[in-house]
Amino acid sequence: MPSEPSKDLETFQNPQPERDYTIRINIPEFTCLCPKTGQPDFAEMTLEYVPEKLCVELKALKMYIWSFRDQGAFHEAVTNEILADLVAATQPRYMRLTAEFNVRGGIYTTVVADHRAEDWQPPVPVTLP
């Protein structure tokens, strides 16, 4: 039976909750519809997050992203909606979603939205000589 788009975001337990580490997911085929013209908008999204207790399951994420294919949305709105849904599902220490939309009328749009848990402080970066 073929897969169907879904707004359900499944999660699984973080295998290393005691450690700050970054999960980076590239989503090269995001599509939604322009709310003004109904024409398709295409974007490459990059999701980066430091998990707390939960991680997002990748097949569920794929079905979730697919669910926007027939939805009309401004770039800014859809990027923030996706971030809000992912934060609600996973409650990460930190999460950033970068959406790089393809050219439309000679204009490229990149929207970057992030979330930081109130009590989380990023570790000091290590600089190697």
From TrEMBL:
<feature type="binding site">
    <location>
        <begin position="56"/>
        <end position="58"/>
    </location>
    <ligand>
        <name>substrate</name>
    </ligand>
</feature>
<keyword id="KW-0521">NADP</keyword>
<dbReference type="InterPro" id="IPR029500">
    <property type="entry name" value="QueF"/>
</dbReference>
<comment type="similarity">
    <text>Belongs to the GTP cyclohydrolase I family. QueF type 1 subfamily.</text>
</comment>
<dbReference type="GO" id="GO:0033739">
    <property type="term" value="F:preQ1 synthase activity"/>
</dbReference>
<dbReference type="Pfam" id="PF14489">
    <property type="entry name" value="QueF"/>
</dbReference>
<feature type="binding site">
    <location>
        <begin position="75"/>
        <end position="76"/>
    </location>
    <ligand>
        <name>substrate</name>
    </ligand>
</feature>
<protein>
    <recommendedName>
        <fullName>NADPH-dependent 7-cyano-7-deazaguanine reductase</fullName>
        <ecNumber>1.7.1.13</ecNumber>
    </recommendedName>
</protein>
<comment type="function">
    <text>Catalyzes the NADPH-dependent reduction of 7-cyano-7-deazaguanine (preQ0) to 7-aminomethyl-7-deazaguanine (preQ1).</text>
</comment>
<dbReference type="InterPro" id="IPR043133">
    <property type="entry name" value="GTP-CH-I_C/QueF"/>
</dbReference>
<keyword id="KW-0560">Oxidoreductase</keyword>
<keyword id="KW-0963">Cytoplasm</keyword>
<dbReference type="InterPro" id="IPR050084">
    <property type="entry name" value="NADPH_dep_7-cyano-7-deazaG_red"/>
</dbReference>
<dbReference type="GO" id="GO:0008616">
    <property type="term" value="P:tRNA queuosine(34) biosynthetic process"/>
</dbReference>
<keyword id="KW-0671">Queuosine biosynthesis</keyword>
<dbReference type="InterPro" id="IPR016856">
    <property type="entry name" value="QueF_type1"/>
</dbReference>
<feature type="active site" description="Thioimide intermediate">
    <location>
        <position position="34"/>
    </location>
</feature>
<dbReference type="GO" id="GO:0005737">
    <property type="term" value="C:cytoplasm"/>
</dbReference>
<feature type="active site" description="Proton donor">
    <location>
        <position position="41"/>
    </location>
</feature>
<comment type="pathway">
    <text>tRNA modification; tRNA-queuosine biosynthesis.</text>
</comment>
